[in-house]
């Protein structure tokens, strides 16, 4: 995932997040059956999708910055000295 | 709850709109703001919005929002009506939610199970009853299963002296508790919404 692609995905996710928030507010302000069903299904599904895209972009950023590999290297157990037997 | 949902939505929307329109560079600070805009505030809005939504679906006005429920709503709202449903709708403790209080399922997940059942109503409404006139619908619509005595016994515990003072209650106590004899519908108190049922046989008695 390139930075450019990630940024574009985030912008789309922001747009979809705005739509999902609009649907959720519609369900709260005008709580008739269809509004509530749409708010609690499509609204929340879009919101969840946006959040997942955000998490993926952040995770990809962290992976590129080698945050995970550095952490893994630090947490490796110390190697035994050659020739030493406990 | 509704106001918390709206405030959370507005804050999240402001953050997302700012990111979409201003296109800031993805620094750590921007990512933190986006975490609030994509995650924290929308989750707050969804949670409180769901609670507010579920609470609203318990109101009688919500049940009456489909046109086929109009006769039931009008009867329950009528202060002069003597039907069981209207008598319960006048109860100060739960009258505003009287449909839900009597028709809800029981158990640990009662609200959720009742609302899942309610989804079936929405489906049937939009696939069939939407274009059915009220006069026809009122005789077509029926419960999925007979009204259980447990619905009545949630409030009328069958253990209070004034209730036991009624001879018929006392004599049919075990049968009532086990559900062998019904309270409403075919039972002594008759249907809760009598206008929606075929007329009873002449001479059949209905308890007050």
Write the layout of secondary structure elements.
The complex is a heterodimer of chains A (86) and B (208).
Chain A: H1 3-29, H2 33-64, H3 67-75
Helix pairs in contact in A: 1-2
Chain B: H1 2-22, H2 28-56, H3 60-63, H4 70-77, H5 84-89, H6 98-103, H7 110-127, H8 134-140, H9 149-153, H10 161-164, H11 167-171, H12 173-178
The number of helical segments of chain B is: 12
Q: In sequence order, what are the helices and strands of chain B, one letter per element?
A: HHHHHHHHHHHH
Q: How many strands of chain A? A: 0
Distinct helical segment count of chain A: 3
Helix content bin of chain A: over 70%
Strand percentage of chain A: under 5%
Biggest interface, chains and residue tallies: A-B, 33 and 35 residues
Task: Return the structural class of chain A.
Answer: mainly alpha
DSSP strand count of chain B? 0
Question: How much strand of chain B?
Answer: under 5%
> Which residues of chain B sit in consecutive blocks of at least 5 with pLDDT less than 50?
200-206
Low-confidence stretches of chain A: none
Rounded to the nearest angstrom, the radius of gyration of chain A is 22 Å
Shape of chain A: elongated
Helicity of chain B, as a percent range? 55-70%
User: What class do helices, strands and sheet pairing of chain B give?
Assistant: mainly alpha
């Amino acid at each position: 995932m390139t930075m450019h692609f990630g940024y574009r995905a985030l912008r789309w996710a922001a747009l979809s997040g705005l739509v999902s928030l609009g649907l959720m507010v519609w369900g709260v302000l005008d709580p008739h059956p269809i509004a509530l069903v749409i708010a609690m299904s499509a609204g929340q599904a879009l919101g969840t999708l946006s959040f997942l895209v955000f998490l993926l972009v952040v995770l990809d950023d962290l992976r590129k910055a080698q945050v995970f590999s550095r952490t893994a290297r630090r947490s490796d157990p110390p190697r035994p000295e050659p020739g030493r037997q406990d | 709850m509704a106001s918390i949902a709206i405030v959370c939505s507005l804050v999240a929307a402001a953050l997302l709109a700012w990111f979409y329109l201003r296109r800031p560079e993805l620094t750590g600070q921007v990512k933190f703001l986006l975490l609030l805009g994509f995650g924290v505030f929308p989750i707050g809005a969804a949670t409180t919005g769901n609670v507010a939504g579920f609470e609203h679906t318990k109101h009688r006005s919500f049940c009456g929002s489909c046109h086929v429920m109009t006769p039931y709503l009008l009867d329950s709202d009528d202060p002069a009506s003597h039907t069981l449903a209207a008598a319960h709708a006048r109860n100060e403790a739960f009258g505003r939610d009287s449909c839900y209080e009597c028709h809800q399922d029981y158990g640990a997940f009662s609200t959720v199970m009742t609302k899942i059942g309610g989804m079936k109503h929405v489906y049937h409404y939009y696939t069939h009853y939407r274009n059915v006139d009220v006069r026809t619908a009122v005789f077509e619509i029926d419960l999925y299963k007979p009204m259980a005595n447990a619905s009545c016994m949630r409030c009328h515990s069958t253990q209070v002296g004034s209730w036991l003072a009624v001879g018929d209650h006392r004599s049919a106590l075990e049968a009532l508790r086990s559900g062998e004899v019904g309270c409403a519908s075919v039972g002594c108190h008759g249907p809760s919404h009598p206008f929606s049922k075929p007329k009873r046989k002449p001479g059949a008695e209905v308890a007050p």
